[in-house]
Amino acid sequence: MGRTREFDEEKVLDAAMQLFWEKGYEATSLSDLTSRMGIQRPSIYSAFGDKKELFEAALRKYTMSRASDVRTRLQNHSSVKEAFSTFFENVVAEEYTKNSSRGCFCINTMVELAPHDEKFEILTREHQMYLSVIFQETIERGIQSGELEADVNAKALSQALIVSLIGLTVIMKSRPERSFVSNTIEVILKLLK
Amino acid sequence: MGRTREFDEEKVLDAAMQLFWEKGYEATSLSDLTSRMGIQRPSIYSAFGDKKELFEAALRKYTMSRASDVRTRLQNHSSVKEAFSTFFENVVAEEYTKNSSRGCFCINTMVELAPHDEKFEILTREHQMYLSVIFQETIERGIQSGELEADVNAKALSQALIVSLIGLTVIMKSRPERSFVSNTIEVILKLLK
DNA sequence: ATTATAACATACCGTTCAGTACGTTATAAT
DNA sequence: ATTATAACGTACTGAACGGTATGTTATAAT
């Protein structure tokens, strides 16, 4: 019994995610959250707990959705080289299209919270490890099909590509000339040769 | 005339730099600053301006010192491959030695402030561009000496190495297994072949 | 229809924030 | 020695912070 909830938990959590993604944890206030989520303060606390728990829920939603998105994109091409090339180009294109560069919510959190909060150290690390496994599986597919040479170290290479992706995502926050990132991608993708 | 300043501006600015580096802009309070810098609040304002101006002074101090440090390290070896190898290994070793991973103050700022403050977008971008020029000069030295092949694209390669360095610095904040970063460095340095 | 209860809106809590007013102390110029 | 002034320590400001107490409203079970 009791009154029924008037808001959609997934929708308001998504709104919180967008805001934390854009502004980070510290710079986002409860007032920012209530206005963006469209619900009152006590509703946030009853549904998600305190600010940090809400942030964690938002980040988990992000990483899950992001992982499946990455997986989908890489499976979309039969050619592995083409898959990675398109993937990296799209990441760049999306970032340069938007006015403000939010980058990656998980990477932002790695920088802001991971060094001071073990929970987020683990959460962000595991997401990156998961992405690196997706990369690795894709590379192994390329080896299997004969597109990539058999002596490629799939694991090491996938880790290097994850690191490059992180570096690209971060440096785009300073809005370098587009040629900078294009050059970088071109060089990095040579590793798939 | 008037009373003489009792604190060393460079020393207290260095203390502020350490604190901002460790905690970021938002999470560092004026009270944190006064206790770490060892001076009172009005002294900060009279010497450096408000919190953001102090932060900017601290970041400028960091980037200048960092750039000259990088330059020195890369000039320390006659072999260019060895120079980069030692450089990357040292970055990793230093990060894993310390208990907490502060990473790079400039990269932290790129993530926290650059997307919302044009001044820091420019400042952080220009630092990365400067580092990339140092990398490029080092690579060109290797080409000149015959250590690297003549058809190497020094500019593109240096940019890719900068991106990799950023990626490495960031992912170390989540404390991945050391093999992860070792693998990455090994793969990345193959680009110098 | 009554009742128990959960979600609602409002208004508030103590704390901490960045920034400053002000009275005191020390020094450089006269 | 006097004076003007700049740096000092203390204590304060209004605003914003995260979080909650409280009274009202709506709904599910009886």
Question: Could you please describe the fold and organization of this structure?
Answer:
The structure is a homodimer of 193-residue chains. By secondary structure, chain A is mainly alpha-helical. The first copy, chain A, has a domain at 63-192: Tetracycline Repressor, domain 2 (Orthogonal Bundle). Chain A has nine helices and no strands. The first copy, chain A, has helices at residues 9-23, 30-37, 41-48, 51-75, 80-97, 105-112, 118-144, 154-171, 178-189. In chain A, α1 (9-23) crosses α2 and α6 (105-112) crosses α7 (118-144). In chain A, 40% of the residues are buried. The model of chain A has no long low-confidence stretch (mean pLDDT 97). Chains A and B meet through α6, α7, α8 and α9 of A and α6, α7, α8 and α9 of B. Chain A binds a DNA duplex (30 and 30 nucleotides) through α3.
Succession of helices and strands of chain A: HHHHHHHHH
* Helix count from the secondary structure assignment of chain A: 9
Strand content of chain A: under 5%
Low-confidence stretches of chain A: none
Find the CATH superfamily of the domain at 63-192 in chain A: Tetracycline Repressor, domain 2
Q: Count all strands of chain A and give the number.
A: 0
What does the largest sheet of chain A look like? none
Mean of residue pLDDT values of chain A: 97
- Name the largest protein-protein interface in this structure: A-B, 51 and 51 residues
CATH first level of the domain at 63-192 in chain A: which class?
Mainly Alpha
Q: How far is it from the N-terminal to the C-terminal residue of chain A, by CA?
A: 63 Å
The CATH topology label of the domain at 63-192 in chain A is: Tetracycline Repressor, domain 2
What's the helical proportion of residues of chain A? over 70%
Rough outline of chain A: elongated
* Category by helix and strand content of chain A: mainly alpha
Architecture of the domain at 63-192 in chain A, according to CATH? Orthogonal Bundle
Assembly classification: homodimer
- Output the radius of gyration of chain A: 19 Å
DNA-binding region (chains A, B): 29-48
Pfam families (chains A, B): TetR_C_13, TetR_N
InterPro entries (chains A, B): DNA-bd_HTH_TetR-type_CS (IPR023772), Homeodomain-like_sf (IPR009057), HTH_TetR (IPR001647), Tet_transcr_reg_TetR-rel_C_sf (IPR036271), TetR_C (IPR011075)
Organism (chains A, B): Viridibacillus soli
